[in-house]
Design brief:
Blueprint: H1 6-9, H2 18-27, H3 30-36, H4 39-56, H5 59-62, E1 67-74, E2 79-86, E3 89-94, E4 103-108, H6 109-116, H7 122-127, E5 131-135, H8 137-141
Parallel strand pairs: 1-4
Antiparallel strand pairs: 1-2, 2-3, 4-5
Length: 152
């Protein structure tokens, strides 16, 4: 598998806007994205993406929704984050809690990056089994409207 290119490895993902991130994901091949998601760089990218979810949350779209969504990103190692939406707020935590998720989304690194950057269709990913959903499929299918995601 390709190693991350030096410019990606040195990139300060905290200073990259969602639009710039979407453009970066769009121009990289699946092999290059997989290379990016290795080791410490993978940890930084996932932490930054999940760290932004609270800021990208659109409470007006959530209405009275109260739900825990568990994200399982397969790879080495499997990484779990949870998004709790309640009373018009969104809280993100790393790891698996004791809360019962209303939906669990399981996908690989490349699919996750494409999904959160607006470069992949969640419906297509689901239909091709690149995105697996356990629990409330209806909730999972509407998640993208709850966040400001760049249009891929």
């Amino acid at each position: 598998m390709a190693e991350p290119t030096p410019d990606l490895a040195g990139l300060d993902f905290g200073s990259v806007t969602p639009e710039e991130f979407a453009a970066l994901v769009r121009k990289l091949s699946a092999k290059e994205l997989a290379g990016l998601m290795r080791g410490e760089l993978r940890t930084r990218v996932l932490a930054e993406v999940f760290g932004r979810m609270e800021r990208q949350f659109r409470p007006e779209s959530a209405g009275s929704l109260n739900a825990v969504i568990r994200w399982e990103i397969t790879g080495e190692p499997v990484v779990v984050y949870e998004t709790e939406i309640a009373d018009g707020t969104c809280a993100v935590r790393a790891g698996r809690s004791d809360a019962a998720p209303r939906a669990t989304l399981t996908m690989g690194d490349v699919e996750f990056l494409k999904l959160v950057s607006g470069n992949g269709s969640p419906v297509t990913m689901f239909m091709t089994r690149k995105l697996k959903v356990a629990g409330d499929v209806g909730l999972a299918s509407g998640l993208t409207r709850l966040f400001d995601i760049p249009k891929g």
